[in-house]
Amino acid sequence: MSKKRIIVSGATGYVGRFIVEGLLSEGHEVLALGRKEPKQGFFSQPVDFEPMVLSQSEYNLDVFQGCSGLVHTAFHHVAGKYRGGEGDQPEEFVQLNHEGSVALYNAAKAAGVSRAVFLSSRAVYGQQEPGEMLFETMAPSPDTLYGQVKRQTELALAELSDQHFLPIILRATGIYGPANPSSNHKWHTLFEDFRTNKPIEPRVATEVYGKGLANAINLLLGAGTDILSDISGGEDAPIFNISDIVLDRYELLQAYAKMTDLDNQNLPQRADAASLNAMDCTRLKALGWKPLGHVDLSWLT
Questions:
Q1: Which of 108, 158, 184, 207 is the most buried (most CB within 10 A)?
Q2: Count of domains forming the chain
């Protein structure tokens, strides 16, 4: 797509940083929104910054002038948790993440931003039949407050859609990749347990590399409205799944052991992958998105 100015909320978070770097790599300008201004060198290139907290109900629309897109990744939660991230404050969790998100999108629309991507989650599907594939057309059935909040926000955003403002929903699986300067990567504790020979529970899950997520967002921001409509069946807010691989901890730690010359005697048992609900990503692939197809641990070296 042509070079544009894009807003990224939660830009300094674990996921937000991947998105900012992906936009910068394509030559776009980025306006980063977050609680704290990033230190010099946090991003590979300079970005503009404005403070933002999800509790805000009003925004200075002048901040958004000249911006054509918004990518919303900011999310209030207990550190290290998304599902269960409400802790003992569920009302605040809903207020900040749902009402705060809707307020942000209303402000962006009022300021003339024409396209917005909401980072939703596979959690909106909830518990499905074991082994059933997850398609965007399935009826959501979130069984956690996290999933419910994401789904409520999806519905609210769809109501904002009109000929001048297009919200796009990206339902993401688990996201992995290198840590940012202020936090550890998602497998830090798992790898530490493996190194110290602590017992590790078997687990299998779907994953996508952070760079793959950033590539998808670039495609969604740049695709023509008619193309998005054709692929998604004309939904008010087009919905796209993003997932890459089904990854067993056994295979992940086996690869990690090989990279680091560790003894692999502490590998967990293989988990039951047959009951996992994988995500169908046909829609995203139709836009040109290419999954990696394997776990990438090159960032550990």
A1: 108
A2: 1
